[in-house]
Specification:
The chain contains 2 helices and 23 strands. It is mostly beta strands. It has a 5-stranded mixed beta sheet, with no helix packed on it. Strands 9-10-11-12 form a 4-stranded antiparallel beta sheet, with no helix packed on it. The protein has a 4-stranded antiparallel beta sheet with strand order 13-14-15-16, with no helix packed on it. A hairpin with a 2-residue loop joins strand 21 and strand 22. It is globular and about 45 Å long.
């Protein structure tokens, strides 16, 4: 599943007047292509500004799709049900909460529960910039369910990508400005405790997990400030890392892809499936590779 159309303060958009879209790409096909998913009536498509995404498959094989949305520069989480027979999404509800102030990414834990990262404490753009300039560590992770909403981790410069280990015992959080990935242990009451931090030499964005190996695939920004320059002579580069055995004493970190921006600008996510790699970006194109 691919999101397109994010409008984020300070970062250019190739189609600023176009509403957000959700695409499906079947990597089992010989020549996969992205197909737009139709969204049910009643959902406000005009203000759809999608950011993070996560899926949850229930015991009856119902597929729920959680999408971070920023309508009118606010933060909501949109819950959809995926109908495979006609490639469509039924909008179930919009989730709002005072603790979901500046949501970046999300990982579903049930049909109506999730962890979410707030990449800033403030939602106002000027205050967000000031927060970043001063190096305030006020970013956090929030757990949401219909019965309980609470902060479960804090002290990040900018909590960004979030995901779970295949056995769902650990939660991984990328702090983009601190250049690291945090490993958090999940408890029965949904609280998180810090286990370790893996420091990297690049800005880490979204995290994807190989369900078979547990490897963490990361879309990274080796020179993140160039995302804001909008300079055709000084393009933002792309980088994809793969982390193996993150819980071990010596995790392996491999650079799988790197480009100076001539092919791919501002890589933000990378997902692997049966030797096929799909790399997404903040505002540029997506890249499909066979490894």
């Amino acid at each position: 599943l691919i999101l397109q159309g994010l409008k984020y303060p300070g970062i250019k958009s190739l189609a600023p007047d176009k509403a957000g879209e959700i695409f499906l790409m079947d990597l089992n096909e010989d020549n996969p292509r992205a197909v737009e998913l139709r969204i049910s009536r009643g959902f406000d498509l005009a203000s759809f500004n999608p950011h993070g995404i996560s899926t949850y498959v229930d015991r009856d094989n119902t597929v729920y799709l959680f999408v971070v949305n920023h309508p009118h520069q606010k933060s909501t989480v949109e819950l959809f049900k995926f109908l495979e027979e006609d490639n469509s999404l039924v909008h179930l509800k919009t989730i709002r909460h005072d603790l979901l102030t500046s949501v970046n990414d999300i990982v579903a834990m049930g049909p109506d529960s999730f962890y979410a990262t707030n990449d800033h404490y403030f939602s106002d753009f000027i205050l967000m910039f000031l927060e970043m300039f001063l190096g305030l560590t006020w970013s956090n992770v929030v757990y949401y369910s219909p019965k309980e909403v609470k902060e479960v981790a804090a002290g990040f410069y900018s909590a960004n990508g979030i995901n779970t280990s295949p056995n769902r015992k650990y939660i991984y959080v990328a702090d983009v400005f601190d250049h690291n990935v945090h490993v958090m242990e999940k408890h029965a009451n949904w609280n998180l405790t810090h286990v370790k931090t893996l420091q990297l030499d690049t800005l880490v964005d979204n995290l994807s997990i190989d369900p078979h190996t547990g490897d963490i695939w990361i879309g990274c920004h080796p020179n993140g400030m160039k995302l804001f320059y909008n300079d055709p002579e000084n393009l933002p580069a792309s980088e994809v890392l793969c982390i193996q055995n993150i819980l071990s004493e010596e995790p392996a970190v491999m650079r799988i892809y790197a480009d100076n921006g001539s092919v791919l600008q501002g890589s933000s996510v990378a997902s692997i499936y049966k030797g096929k790699l799909l790399i997404g970006t903040v505002f540029h194109r997506a890249l499909y590779c066979e490894l």
